[in-house]
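Q: What does the assembled structure look like for these inputs?
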Amino acid sequence: MSEQSRMSEQKQKDAKDAAVDLREEMLRGAKALSGQQSPQGQHVPQGQQDRQGKGGVTSDLSIDETLLLHAVGWEPVDLVFGVSTVSIPPGWWNWGQGEIEAASEAHQRAVSTASSRLRHECGQVGGRGVVGVRISVVVEPSHIDAELVGTAITPLTGASGRSRGSEPFVSDLSARDFTLLHRAGWEPVGLAYGTSFVYVPRRSAGTALRQSSQNVELTNFTQAMYAARESAMERMQSSAIAMGGTGIVAVQVTEGPMSFARHAVRFGAWGTSVRLAGDSHHYADPQVVLPLDDVVVEFEAQSLRN
Amino acid sequence: MPGSESDSDSVSAESTPLEEADRRLESGSFSSGLTVPDFAACLQMGLRPVGLVQGFCVMQWGWYSAGSQYLRGANPFSPGGGPGVYSASWRCPHGMVSAEHRAWGQNYEQPWVESAWAQGFGSAYERMLEEARFAKAHGVIGIVDRTTSLSDMGVTEFHILGTAVVVEDGPPPADGVPWTTYLAGQRLAKLVESGFMPVAVTAALASVRVWAYCITEYQMRGGTSAWGAGMGAGYGVQEVDQISEAHAAVRSIARAHVRRGLQGDWLHGARMDVSMQRVDEGDEVLECTLRGTRVRRFRQADPLPAPRPTVRLG
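A:
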């Protein structure tokens, strides 16, 4: 037998040894549940001991996300949320110039309050941060509702967690993105956001009439969008700087008019504010892979016809 | 239902639905709600499907008349629905007494709604388990639960189904109660591989009724009002405390309900859904359901090797 084939066989044997026997694991799990076998190595990390005393760990992470976090030294603690409803005074939506200050302020306050409540809940359950935060903001004529829900996580016992700040972080990054960020030597700091509502100036009756039969750009709408964009982006960046971040990743934007206010536009932007956890960035050094999957060749009945 | 013409509420004297299901499960062939990949993964784990098991329950929500015990707590002087039940009151700051002025407001948990929901879900779940027990199943995987409103008369149908499985060479479950999970296929395989075993699906509903007081009404309506203006409400940007508190409370109560049943285990894959029914300006009924799979660690798993980033060519 050649050296090459011996090595190949050895590799296959090693891979087989390393693979978990799923049947065996399932059987072991079923025996543990039925009480025939005591659970093995019931070491429970400190954070979980506290939670278990209160009724167990809750998490909306998938099993993949839980395993990924575990691989980089973190574990879920509890499902946490922050909500806030802020009122908008009457008479702001349809007539005016420039920014609709009350709406922008209400939005900022609703998200900010919900975020700080989420952070507070995270701290209360012993978490060091919240990942995978789902952000839902509903804009109504008279109020703005903000809801943030995510899973609080904490470093495994003995792991540093690498966080420099004392405050728990809030991030809408998935556990996968959090893991990659962590590997690259960065850490999330908080949720950066900014929103602006701007009036769209009304055209004069003459202009509206003249333009009614033309294909023209409505510069009043375009300019309002630009104005809203500038204010929102600036607010988002300011909030990132205020919380000690040096940049924002995974920025998402939402923009456009609202059904109840035809002469107002909204621009919102949010993302996770990040900073270096150490002295320098770690190059992720990705491995290049070439998948060998065959491209599925689809049979086309039409090809039979000339 | 066959043989039930004489009494629509009675069950057939010849065979009950459960007995009919039992005959089907005994037929020798199996049925399953698993997809082909999930079925393949199921066999890989040593799980043998024995049948698609289901449970139904149709519940009617009662009508709460004045003076009903169900409206306890709905006045400004009562402490609420009892010990451990959420309730909070808000008093009008204007000193005004009028039928048109909401002089007080209250948020309160509706435990009767919660227990009715728990009864409906629990009955459907128990009936599904009963079928699984009859099939001598060790567990039920890939559970799907649906809650459907059958009419606008407050009638809700609970339907829970899943695939009953037997662990090849495995022991019968503790107390004969099969374990259950929303997971199936590779997700279940990964859960077991990482040292967790599903125990049971867990779900709870929390319900909070908001009776707005004057300030909340003005804030949510967004209209002008001398009363609101006098108190700063209706003109300034302010948090609507009563509504914010109700939204936080309903989520918190649902989480507490689920947590009570965990007994130190984990709730994996939690899903939180909130619905709001607006009754009037500021008056709302909030409902929050939280569900997931209760899992128990049977083996301490070492962390996986740190993942290696890859870039695909092609």
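Residues 17-61+72-297 of chain B form one domain.
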